[in-house]
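Thread: CRISPR-associated endonuclease Cas1, structure

OP (GT): Posting the sequence first so everyone is looking at the same thing. Length is 318 residues per the record. Can we get the structure tokens written out before standup tomorrow? I want them in the notebook alongside the other entries.
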Amino acid sequence: MSTLVLDHRDLSLDYENECILIRQPQQPPRSIPLGRLARILVMHSVQVTTRLIGQCQHRGVDFIVLNGRHHEHSFAVLASHQRQAARRVLQYQITSSEERALPLAKRLVRHKLAVTRYSLWRQSVNRERLASLRGCQQSVQQCTSLQQLRGVEGSAQRETFKCWREQLPPQLGFNRRERRPPPDPVNAILSLSFTLLYQEASRQSLVHGLDPWLGIYHQLTPGRLSLACDLMEPLRPLIEAWVVQLFCEGELDNRHFSTSTQGCRLGKHGREIYYRLWHDRLPRWSRRLSAYAALLAHYLEQTPDASQHGATMWKTGT
């Protein structure tokens, strides 16, 4: 099972004889069996039939649209097979009460910070920076509210990006994390990578019968799949380290990007490089997301009050 990346303009997509039919001006039509695909990734505006969308849903193929200029406008039509109402009822009970959600959220943040410290240690970051992050990790247990917990996590994240900045070539112009629009190549690739990971986290939450809109750490917010954001948190340090590696090893550099008033964007040749490398890594990250979603689903089902078992959540290794 593979990912079909459609990175051309003026495409029209249809379904015919168990295949996706791809038409492009002045080109012969192409057809690819849907049975070979796990997901379809569209990079530009296309014409698509409802017949194809319906068949993707029926056959378990995710249909993902990425907006290169405005990542918040990206979306996915995900093929969900295991909608389990009982799990969602338990999920609603946890997320509707901060008292119940806080123990699990604290465990999530502590695990993320442990992954962060490990990722930075592998990059030979100095001990003082690692000690600062360890202090943030220890502060998590004293947090008495989600708001306080987010403050600790935010402080740790700012310290983390200072470390990444020191690792990156200075000509990339990376100073801090900026999203809309990304002003430099590093921010552009971080935003793209987190958008892709967000779609996969949403898919894994649906596969495990969870409601992707209702998070434990991230609050319910219009337009945001908060549980998908929760599942992503422990993987963010790994994505950050991978992005830094792409630039430090010269896989990507300034030549692969263009900058305008709408921000920094990855060019066509850069996209070819990036998506090849991304899809090499995606299976292992997808397995981690699946493990986190499965672990959450397990504790929702196994305990009357899953929040009492926050200390055992999020223990998948770094």
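GT: Both are above now. Quick notes for whoever picks this up: DSSP finds nine helices and ten strands in the chain. Confidence is low (pLDDT under 50) at residues 305-312.
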